[in-house]
Design brief:
Elements: E1 4-6, H1 9-18, E2 21-27, H2 32-47, E3 53-59, H3 66-69, E4 77-82, E5 85-91, H4 95-106
Parallel strand pairs: 1-3, 2-3
Antiparallel strand pairs: 2-4, 4-5
Amino acid sequence: MSIQEISTIAEFKKLVTENDKVMVKCFAKWCGPCKALGPRFQAIAAQNASSGVTFAAIDVDASGKLPSLLRVVGLPTVISIRKGKEKSRVQGVNFPKINSMLTALKE
């Protein structure tokens, strides 16, 4: 499964309206920890392609006011969303927490 690139508020709203379970990675190209998370997030998305979870990525430097709307204050930030509502989030590269968020989202 590929990761959807989201860059506008309208795209984000469409994403969470059309998909019940969403995992979003907020990142910046210059961010070292974001670079470490990137390949692992891609692998998690591939391993969970048939799980019913939609994976998306938001480049905070190329998405206008979307990071502010999502209250992103540190990078990387991973947010799990169910039926349009945030369920949990983690800031930084914390693979155990990201995996537990995903497990809870799949239930």
